[in-house]
Amino acid sequence: RKEVEQDPGPFNVPEGATVAFNCTYSNSASQSFFWYRQDCRKEPKLLMSVYSSGNEDGRFTAQLNRASQYISLLIRDSKLSDSATYLCVVTFSGGYNKLIFGAGTRLAVHP
Amino acid sequence: DAGITQSPRHKVTETGTPVTLRCHQTENHRYMYWYRQDPGHGLRLIHYSYGVKDTDKGEVSDGYSVSRSKTEDFLLTLESATSSQTSVYFCAISETDPEYYNEQFFGPGTRLTVL
User: Fold this and answer.
1) Mean pLDDT to the nearest integer, B23-35
2) Which pLDDT score is estimated for B40?
3) Phi, psi at residue A9, to the nearest 5°?
4) Cα three-residue angle A47-A50-A55, rounded to 5 degrees
5) Which residues 45-104 of A have a C-beta within 8 angstroms of B?
6) How many helices (DSSP H) and strands (DSSP E) are in chain B?
7) Cα separations (Å) of A17 from A23, B25, B101?
């Protein structure tokens, strides 16, 4: 079983739609959680951190469920510019503090 | 954007040849990392550095070595390239330990093809 699992998609949605992604992680000792965004053939960039209480940044809402070991990302009012791959990232101490990346969920927003 | 550059950006080489990739940062961050990204896999850590001359192995370190003689430079060497090392390589930096919600900043990547 992979340490961090994501549905690869693609999620094809029209502009204005609401879309949600989930990500599950296997290590209950995981400590920090993030969503990164990666545009095609570009480097990943931090979209938002995910805190225990949940957090929101404009149209984006992230939630953490430690009991079920998953995090989620909700995007409201999708824009064409939201088309990208969204990477779930989890950290835990495994000999060294490391980030484990999911393989990503691809989102395609169409007019 | 964080000041991270990678060189070369693209390279095609032949099996058995040595290859060195360079990562250069202008942020004076302590931690530096090398990842590889392959289809169907998340980014996987090859090696990382937590200071000058302080390096350690990641989860996919076989066939790779690294060196860090200056804060700003982190070199990744493929001693004898193999086709399985065809990948996109990303360098990343972070100011402090990544465990505690500290962001990693990524370089633009190097596309390496081993024929």
Assistant:
1) 95
2) 82
3) 75, -150
4) 90
5) 45-46, 49, 87, 91-93, 96-104
6) 0, 11
7) 20, 39, 30
Q: Residue A75: which of A27, A25, A15 has the closest Cα?
A: A15
Which token pair is A66?
């430690």
Put simply, the chain A residues between 7 and 26 with a CB less than 8 A from any chain B CB are 8
Chain B residues inside the 8 Å CB shell of A49: 101, 103
Q: Is B101 on the interface with A (CB under 8 A)?
A: yes
Mean pLDDT of chain B, nearest integer: 93
Chain B nearest C-alpha distance from A111 (Å)? 27
Confidence band for A97, pLDDT divided at 50, 70 and 90: low
On the question of pLDDT at A96 being above 70, the answer is no
How close, in Å, is residue B39 to chain A by CA atoms?
Answer: 8
- Tell me, yes or no, if B10 comes closer than 8 A to chain A by beta carbon: no
From A26-30, A50-54, A72-76, the region with the lowest mean pLDDT: A26-30
